[in-house]
């Protein structure tokens, strides 16, 4: 899964990078080096203004709550369990299939975090394994990001949920896939990345053919990414700052 990531690009940088036409961010967009579920996160999406025809759709930048809440949900709490959608089944699952058809988005990121179970937490001895199973396994956080420093455009879906107070709440999820090669040794899943040449098609709400949409997504190559251990300070959502994505010199 992808449960933490960093997004620290300036507002104008995102607007320029993604050729945004409408800036719908209501508050200042602050760098976040420890994005966690239920936080407000920047997303890029294409949508027609209310009461306008589909061909009037414009690309916009806005912030939404991370953790998709289906339209039929009774409350927001379900969103904390729906931060990720598996690529293999996202087009079929009732909670995601409508959004996959026409409410797709991109989540800009500088990189993401995963936790690797340290070797001393593993054993082939059944008796020793039972003892260690009772203890919390030791995990080392890693920061994984594009080697060239380019922005990661994570494939996502967004949804609008109407609260009991009659207010519309925008929420989103990140689509994940199998992690390749070296990245898979750290964790077996990773965010699905959309390459720039496919941004237009991915964001196009007029493209609703499921098979065509699935063809837009291809797993990233491990050689394009760099992974290194970082401080365990990232384990706490209370910690935030550029130091969280710096390589750790003492294993955390």
From TrEMBL:
Q: Which UniProt keywords apply?
A: Covalent protein-DNA linkage, DNA damage, DNA-binding, Hydrolase, Lyase, Protease
Q: What EC class does the entry list?
A: hydrolase
One GO MF term on file is: single-stranded DNA binding
Cite a single GO BP annotation: proteolysis
Sequence similarity: Belongs to the SOS response-associated peptidase family.
Signal peptide bounds: none
- The EC number of this protein is 3.4.-.-
**Name of the protein described by the UniProt record:** Abasic site processing protein
InterPro entries per record: SRAP, SRAP-like
């Amino acid at each position: 899964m992808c449960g933490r990531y960093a997004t620290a690009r300036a507002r104008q940088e995102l607007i320029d990078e993604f050729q945004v036409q409408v800036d719908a961010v209501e508050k200042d967009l602050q760098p976040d080096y420890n994005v966690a579920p239920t936080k407000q996160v920047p997303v890029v999406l294409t949508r027609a203004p209310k009461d306008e025809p589909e061909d009037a759709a414009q690309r916009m930048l806005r912030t939404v709550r991370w953790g998709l809440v289906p339209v039929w949900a009774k409350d927001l709490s379900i969103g904390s369990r729906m931060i990720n959608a598996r690529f293999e089944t996202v087009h079929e699952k009732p909670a995601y299939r409508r959004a996959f058809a026409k409410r797709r988005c991109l989540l800009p990121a500088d990189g993401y975090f995963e936790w690797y179970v340290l070797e001393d937490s593993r054993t082939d001895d059944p008796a020793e394994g039972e003892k260690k199973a009772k203890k919390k396994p030791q995990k080392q956080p890693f920061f994984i990001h594009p080697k060239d420093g380019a922005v990661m455009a994570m494939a996502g879906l967004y949804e609008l949920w109407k609260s009991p107070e009659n207010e519309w709440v925008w929420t989103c999820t990140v689509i994940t896939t199998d992690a390749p090669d070296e990245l898979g040794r750290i964790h077996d899943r990773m965010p699905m990345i959309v390459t720039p040449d496919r941004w237009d098609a991915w964001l196009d709400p007029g493209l609703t053919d499921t098979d065509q949409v699935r063809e837009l997504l291809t797993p990233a190559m491990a050689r394009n990414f760099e992974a290194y251990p970082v401080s365990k300070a990232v384990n706490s959502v209370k910690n935030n700052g550029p130091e969280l994505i710096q390589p750790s010199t003492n294993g955390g």
